[in-house]
Amino acid sequence: MRQEAIPLIHIRSLVKYVNKRNFNETNESIKQFIQDFGLEADRSVLRHLFTVLNFSDPKPNSTSQWQAKLLGAILERQLQSSSFVSSICFAVDQHFAANQKTVKPTELIGQVSRLTGINKLCECIFALAVTHSSYPELQQSARDNLRSSLPELLDSYLGNNNRSASAAASGLQDISSDLLQYLLSCLNEFVTPQLEGQFLNKLREEFPRQTVPLILAPFLYGTTKTTATQSIVGSVQASPGETDAETETGPGIETTTASSSTTSNNNTTVTTDADTLNEVGIEDIYDHLCEIIFSSQVIRFVYS
């Protein structure tokens, strides 16, 4: 018998006999099993729980209810896992493949959410993961679910539904930066521009420009780079009125003259705009410095 088969048999036994008294102990044992054996263990546990549960049962027995609660705890832990998309898709696809005659794709996500009791954030992340399923009908079902559940999540977080402690209930309070980035990348497909704008404004209050995580900056302050770049371009490219440079154009003749202070003026401008440079990408800084150096070399060549 393979070494990993022994704890897997033990896990199946834990799932089979989970109840109110041993739930916490069972949950911790499974958590430790996943930590010890990694991704394959995570997938195996999820797949087994999806196998033993009948999500369409309107009146599950006591054992099924505790198994569903166990699945809910594992799904919520997926929010801290970088492989949550592949793990969830693996379990859901296997479940659907084995039960295509009885499982209704349009109801599956809602049934899982109701039976496990996961919060709205976990439901949305679960649905987002299922959009990557290998079954088109499950993908479409997940998108349909997100068009209602994701606006509900954001409304709850923003307090638009007039519920007390709604932000905490949504689950968004403790979301990781990586998961928030994933959520932000999908917003425009499932929520209105107005709601998306309200959510982004709220996040800007919580993540000021000076402290925003790097992976969130493009979503929250994406226009800053463009504005700052334009400011740099305007300051480092000296115009005829700002320097002693003068350009005269005649029929077929173009003569350019510049004062010897052009280079020092450009350097001074770059120094005074240091705060702006901090907000610009390293590629932009490099490009503008190259432009300054090249311009200086051209001027020296003209006067040499």
TrEMBL record:
Compositional bias of kind Low complexity: 248-271
Domain of life the protein comes from: Eukaryota
GO cellular component annotations of the record: CCR4-NOT core complex; cytosol; P-body
Gene Ontology molecular function: any one: molecular adaptor activity
An annotated GO BP: nuclear-transcribed mRNA poly(A) tail shortening
Region (Disordered): 235-271
Protein name (Swiss-Prot/TrEMBL): GK21491
Gene name as annotated: Dwil\GK21491
